[in-house]
């Protein structure tokens, strides 16, 4: 698989940026719309409309194009930005999504909810609905978020470590079956060689990142950036000394966390506590 594409400074308007990238990738590959459709398996007119910005397509076709072009997660990240109103996405978050697609390793700390890269459909739906999304908009956002899980799949998937405060796993979904499925997915994900899940027990006391979730992205050039997020705002941090300060807090918390095997047992205990469906 070719190396991840480095994002350049083309259009910052999400829908136009998505169309530009589609055209560029096909041109670089040297195939026509008809040839592309024959290989990937969709109608050539659909690809033409996507490249002209008339339509965005769905997550399935975008994932197929990511696989064909060898750009795991890049097109899906651009598509996720394009499906919503561009005014909803601040420049920092747009840049973060681009960097996530090209990161060679990722480390996350979750203070209240699971990271998007580990969310099931049911979990994502409830979280996004709380933010006000509904109807077709909600469906598209759920598909976009859960589609990003492809970034962590396959032989070339980057290493990902999720450090979860105990409160994340003590806060169930309203739907017991959806919560059961989410916990089962965490157990499944923890078995993959590139994914490490650790739980930070409440008994650890106060810790450095008590008020913010954070994602660290290590890039191709060896630089690490951080994206912090709370209930009101997110911030992309690229200045070295600030990133190092956050990393030291993260490392300290990781040392206090349960090891991966103990964390897996913790998730299993949470799963056993989910009420079983009663037959009528």
UniProtKB/TrEMBL annotation:
Positions of the HTH cro/C1-type domain: 22-75
A Pfam match: HTH_31
PROSITE patterns (alphabetical): HTH_CROC1
Family matches, as SUPFAM superfamilies: lambda repressor-like DNA-binding domains
Protein name per its UniProtKB record: Helix-turn-helix domain-containing protein
